[in-house]
Design brief:
Elements lengths: L1 E8 L5 E4 L4 H6 L1 H13 L7 E6 L2 E8 L2 E8 L4 H19 L16 H10 L3 H5 L11 H4 L5 E4 H6 L7 H49 L1
Helix pairs in contact: 3-4
GO cellular component, one term: endoplasmic reticulum membrane
Protein name: Protein transport protein SEC22
Keywords: Coiled coil, Endoplasmic reticulum, ER-Golgi transport, Golgi apparatus, Membrane, Protein transport, Transmembrane, Transmembrane helix, Transport
Length: 219
């Protein structure tokens, strides 16, 4: 079940919009909303654009698009595919309505009027039954990136709180490791070639001199 939604600017974590939650929901999610603020502070230009962070009975899913972070707090049992479809739908509408203004606003919750669209969309995605019957919604139009939810990075809130883990791209790290590995392989080949030259160069020089002497003697 979709519980609450937060939208912030990625570059400085400025709140742009949020769902209007009733008092019981606000109280129940108080700790998790604080955790969401921690996530916003940990986001960097190299952070994963799609990520799920498990925290107790809830999971915090976020999507980064055009310098905006869209985060939803949902029940842990709520399907990730639906959570990211919901966020994708929000991001497209938000980009259409406010995309050109995102980098220029200075006051928090400058786009508070977006809560109307969030509320309407959240009701469609409120549970798996209504979401599954949403007809022409994004659920039936997910792109390849959202279809393969196994590629979305999953972390645990404790890792962020106690180990200070970042939200940087694993693919970025993997690329760096491959680059370093290739660099070391080239260095190893060069060292092997130099070693062979040092080992066999004197013998080659002697053989060359002998050949020259023999050619001169019998020519």
């Amino acid at each position: 079940m979709v519980r609450s939604t937060l939208i912030v600017r990625a570059s400085d974590a400025l709140p742009l919009a949020a769902s209007v939650d009733d008092e019981p929901t606000e109280q129940a999610l108080q700790e998790h909303k604080q955790q969401a603020k921690l996530i916003f502070r940990r986001i960097t230009p190299n952070s994963e654009p799609l990520c799920s962070i498990e925290s107790g009975q809830y999971t915090l899913h976020y999507l980064i698009s055009d310098n905006v972070v869209f985060l939803v707090i949902a029940d842990k049992s709520y399907p990730r595919k639906l959570a990211f479809s919901y966020l994708d739908e929000l991001s497209k509408e938000f980009s259409t309505s406010y995309g050109a203004k995102v980098d220029t606003v200075r006051k928090p919750y400058a786009f508070v009027g977006f809560d109307t669209f969030m509320g309407k969309t959240a009701r469609i995605y409120q549970d798996t039954r209504t979401a599954g019957a949403a007809g022409n919604s994004n659920i039936e139009k997910l792109n390849d990136e959202l279809q393969d939810v196994t590629r979305i990075m999953t972390k645990n809130m404790e890792e962020l709180l106690w180990r200070g883990d970042s939200l940087d791209r694993m693919s970025h790290l993997s690329t760096s490791l491959r680059s370093e590995s290739e660099k070391y392989r080239k260095s190893a080949r060069n060292i092997n070639v130099q070693a062979m030259l040092r080992q066999y160069a004197p013998i080659g020089a002697v053989v060359f001199i002998v050949i020259i002497l023999l050619w001169w003697r019998f020519s």
